[in-house]
Write a structure and sequence with these properties.
alpha/beta, Rossmann fold, five-stranded parallel beta sheet, 5 strands
Length: about 150
C-alpha cells in the first residue's frame, strides 16, 4: 500500500522504514505538516500517516477524500486534530495508537526528576552562554554511603 507520511523527521523515517520491512508498504516521507494547503502532496495515496500537529479539519479531509485517500493513520494517541464527524461522512477510516508504553512514560518521568535535581536545564543554558562555572549542585537523593 502507498502511504504518505507527513510531519516526518529523520528519526521517524528511520524507525518507520525499519518497522515496515515485514509489510513492504511504499512509504513516501514529507516534512511539512498535513493541512488543507499541503493535502495535494497525498494525491494517489490511499493512506496518510500523520502526527499530532497535522490539521485534519473537514477541509483537509474533503481534499484527501477527493484525491483517493481512504485511511488516516495517526502516530499518536490523541485525535483532537481530526474532525471525526467529517471523516465518518466522507467514509474515511481513522486509526490511532491505542496507548503509550507505561514503562517508557515512567522512565521519562524519572529522567525528568533527575534532570531537575541535577539542574541540567540551568547548566545547559549556562554552557550556551559560555559560562562553565560548576556552582550548580543537586540534592543527594540516596545515601549510598550506607549501602
Amino acid at each position: 500500500m502507498k502511504v504518505a507520511v507527513f510531519s516526518t523527521k529523520s528519526s521517524d523515517r528511520q524507525f518507520l522504514e525499519s518497522a515496515d520491512k515485514k509489510f513492504e508498504h511504499e512509504l513516501t516521507f514529507f516534512e511539512p505538516q498535513l493541512g488543507p494547503e499541503t493535502s495535494i502532496l497525498a494525491v494517489g495515496y490511499p493512506c496518510v500517516c500523520v502526527f499530532v500537529n497535522d490539521d485534519l479539519s473537514s477541509d483537509a479531509l474533503k481534499k484527501l477524500s477527493q484525491q483517493g485517500t481512504k485511511l488516516i493513520a495517526l502516530r499518536c494517541t490523541g485525535f483532537n486534530n481530526v474532525d471525526l464527524r467529517a471523516s465518518e461522512k466522507l467514509g474515511l477510516t481513522v486509526v490511532r495508537v491505542p496507548a503509550y508504553s507505561l514503562a517508557a512514560v515512567a522512565e521519562h518521568t524519572v529522567a525528568l526528576i533527575l534532570s531537575l535535581n541535577r539542574k541540567i536545564h540551568r547548566a545547559y543554558s549556562r554552557v550556551r552562554e559560555g559560562n562553565f562555572q560548576i556552582s550548580l549542585l543537586g540534592i543527594k537523593l540516596l545515601n549510598i554511603d550506607k549501602c
